[in-house]
Design a protein that fits this description.
The protein is an alpha+beta fold. The chain contains eleven helices and seven strands. Strands 1, 2, 3, 4, 5, 6 and 7 form a seven-stranded antiparallel β-sheet that branches. Helix 2 packs across helix 10, helix 4 packs antiparallel against helix 9 and helix 9 packs antiparallel against helix 10.
Length: about 350
């Protein structure tokens, strides 16, 4: 019987979840396309293919964003159907508690979380990176791998403020490089400008440029100048990309870099590493929030009132989750607390409510 019950509940939950996910995603993609239709149409005679490319690149990001909320809605509708058809009463009469029903739905939530994790780690970062670079070109052409090469940008590399006009050969060849070298207190020590910079596997060499020393005022030209620049080609290819578009390997590498050698402090990247791990678990929290309210549906029949409470808690979770992430990025909170705190607090609230109402 337990196996049949689990299969029945999971199939119902999965069907409702997929329907809600498809409906909300279709609406969000449609609204997003309408908002960017003018930008896409400016540089294309035929807009169908660019709009299809845009929709495909935005789809993974939107899916990852709304999956937990879809889990909440699916759980609420599942409980509402069980309550409206008196199936919850029959289940409790057969000795099945709300804990067991909730546990079965949590198994469905675990499956959703696993799929969400795979999407957030493997699909969302490259899609977001390509869309970002495409938007930088005002959506000219089509989004391909080539647009991941950075254009003009300033960024930090140890004691050097670095500006490049372009990068080629996977970040190993930089065009028109300007460097500002600072000492420990932050005073400017020297300026460098070179036509290009080349990476040979062990370090950088500036080609055809000059160095202006601030301390003695001397300006020297050079054809080749090896320079201990704490910069690797992989970091160059990530210039100006949003942190949300970096994969796990890049985030871990950047979080381990010495202070000042990356675009942001290490805690900024650690917060995003934690977010990648914690975000998929939001679906489990949503089911825990829906479970006690599902029990109230059985008892009171006030579906609208308790459904509104559940949705309000879900939106409150999203607001607090993103607010604390901002604190974690800025260093105001420890990354682990900023990322895992909302999950722990709202999950505990759901468990306590379920325990109280079950009694």
């Amino acid at each position: 019987m337990r196996r049949i019950l689990a299969q029945f509940l999971l199939v119902r939950f999965a069907g409702i979840f997929l329907f809600v996910l498809f409906t909300l995603t279709s609406l969000l993609v449609l609204f997003d396309l309408l908002a960017h239709a003018d930008d896409l149409a400016v540089n294309h005679r035929e807009t169908l293919l660019p709009m299809a490319c845009y929709a495909c690149l935005r789809l993974p990001v939107l899916l990852a964003m709304i999956t937990p909320m879809c889990a909440l809605l699916a759980a609420l509708v599942t409980f509402e159907r069980l309550a409206s058809q008196y199936e919850l009463v029959a289940l409790q009469g057969a000795g099945v508690s709300m804990y067991q029903v909730c546990l079965i739905l949590l198994l469905g939530g675990i499956a959703v979380a696993v799929l969400h994790f795979g999407l957030a780690v493997n699909v969302v970062p490259p899609a977001e990176a390509r869309l970002f670079r495409w938007a930088e070109r005002n959506y000219q052409g089509l989004p391909g791998r080539a647009v991941l090469e950075p254009g003009p940008a300033w960024f930090a590399a140890g004691a050097f403020q670095t500006h490049i006009s372009n990068a080629r050969d996977d970040g190993r060849l930089l065009d028109t490089v300007l460097l500002i070298e600072r000492d420990e207190p932050g005073s400017i020590m020297a300026y460098y400008e070179a036509r290009e910079a080349r990476y040979d596997g062990s370090g950088w060499t500036l080609m055809n440029g000059w160095k202006q020393s601030i301390t003695d005022g001397q300006r020297q030209g050079f054809a080749r100048l090896p320079l201990a620049l704490p910069l690797d080609p992989e970091q160059v290819t990530q210039v100006r990309l949003p942190v949300s578009s970096l994969d796990f390997a890049a985030l871990r590498a950047l979080s381990a870099k010495p202070a000042g050698s990356a675009a942001f402090p290490s805690w900024h990247y650690k917060a995003w590493i934690g977010r990648r791990l914690a975000e998929p678990l939001g679906s489990l929290v949503m089911i825990l929030l829906a479970a006690p309210l599902g029990l109230q549906l059985k008892r009171s029949g006030r579906q609208l009132q308790w459904g509104s409470i559940a949705l309000g808690l879900g939106f409150l979770f999203f607001i607090i989750e993103r607010l604390l992430l901002a604190f974690g990025e800025s260093g105001a909170l420890a990354p682990s607390l900023a990322v895992w705190g909302p999950l722990a607090v709202f999950g505990l609230v759901g468990i306590i409510l379920l325990s109280m109402l079950q009694k």
